[in-house]
Amino acid sequence: MESAVRGRFVNKGFFSGPYVPVHGIGAFAVYGLCMPLKPYPILVFLMSAAICTLVEYLAAIFLEKFFSIRGWDYETYPFTKWCHYKRRIALTTSLFFGVVSLAVIYFYWDFGLWLSNRLNNAAGPIPLIIIDIVMLAVFFLDAAFTGSKYIRNKQAGISNKTIGLG
Fold this sequence. Notes:
Elements: H1 2-6, H2 21-34, H3 41-67, E1 84-85, E2 89-90, H4 91-123, H5 125-156
Antiparallel strand pairs: 1-2
Helix pairs in contact: 2-3, 2-4, 3-4, 4-5
């Protein structure tokens, strides 16, 4: 999304490609756990903010423990300097995740299903399956190469600095 907004490729973090798995994991967790709460927007907001914050915190710990990387540092961002916990999670981003999750629950998934059905009806399932396979292959290759690079750096004693923009 940020690449589209800026009109150029933006690397948001750990991987070489323009994707941030922690956001995808958070979105799927929100979808799975908050869809039953759809009639209650306030609960969706609170629950999704908590879910995304937990996913973000666990991702930060994972990156630090396995790759010696600090994926983001909320002490350095203007709107999070005063409200972060160990520079891994921040109140302002948790609230933002809650708002974005409302869009996921009430708009994005329905639109995605509608679009998928339209494409499926127009061309059949094969093109979508091929696109999915190619995208997954690219992602897993990127994950393998990037992960091995950071592990080699860690084993060689080369510092893996803070990456990404949060």
